[in-house]
Amino acid sequence: MASELEVGQIVEGTISGITHFGAFVVLPNGRTGLVHISEVADAYVKDIKEYYKENDRVQVKILSMDPNGKIALSIRQTQPKPANRERDNGSRRERRPNQASFEEKMQRFMRDSEDRLQDLRRNTESKRGGRGAGR
User: Where does the record place the region Disordered (predicted)?
Assistant: First the structure.
């Protein structure tokens, strides 16, 4: 593969880091580009770690390259459009790997909520002087 990259080209890279705003991907020529969180998937992405982890190999499309060396990438634009898949599969929707179902997300939400409530109760009790303290 040529070491020169071009806008519009699709290449394979390796995720080298994940932040709250995107994922850094090392490209075949050794340079690093950024996949903004909005370019990870067609669905709303709150946490990239629900889709990918460091060292995952991914297909990326080069969106832009500026003179300062910044490279904008997209994973979303390398994947088939969900509308086409829904039409092909009738009413059934295909899930991407690592994408949680509604039930899984709801279970995670309920577990996290319970953990937060327990922390809040503990914190409130300690400020009141413990369980046995009255007002």
Answer: 71-135
